[in-house]
Amino acid sequence: GNEITSSSFCPIVPAHNHLCRWFAMHSDSFHNSILEELPLVDVLKLFDVMLISIKVKTCENYGAGLLRFHQYCDSRSIPEKNRMPASDCLLASFVASWARKVATTMAQNWLAGLHFWHNLHSAPWFGHGLLHSATAGLTKVIPDSSKHPHRPPVTLEHMHALFQGLNLSNAFDMATFAVACITFWCCCRYGSVA
Fold first, then answer.
1. Which residues touch 176 (CB under 8 Å, ≥6 apart)?
2. Are 117 and 19 in contact (CB under 8 A)?
3. What's the whole-model pTM score?
4. Mean pLDDT of the residues in the chain
5. 153 φ, ψ (degrees, to nearest 5)
6. Facing residues of 86 across strands?
């Protein structure tokens, strides 16, 4: 589900707003220190520019990662103060909890969101040795639903069929065939080198 324990740090907002609307205990001290150094208008501009740096879809994926991280922390009774900055052990344990459940790329996107969230609040990122090992392990236990069967190789017969089906007086068809030929022969050459 998408439920999390009710908290003033994590109000109920759409996933794409999690990065800008979710906070941690660390955020308060950071906000106070930055406001001592910069005027409010500059602070707001800084956060706005940082948030604009990522696409809306990426923001949604990052927000989903924050949700999953907080759900994990809630299920393990991890106190709010330990969620940011998150320890290497906590981050690694979070990733390991998703083994055989999600593809590695999804977990990596979630971690990228957590890392961005830490940066946004000037929290140190402790995702190092344990996290790298857990993420590497995740690639070894990819769920079957994330695997695709190998497809048969493209053969010369396929290339001939493509050639017969294209109108080489059409610029698009000509470009398509040129790219197909280059790709085909590069793969053939790579196979003989590898």
1. 166
2. yes
3. 0.70
4. 87
5. -70, 155
6. 83
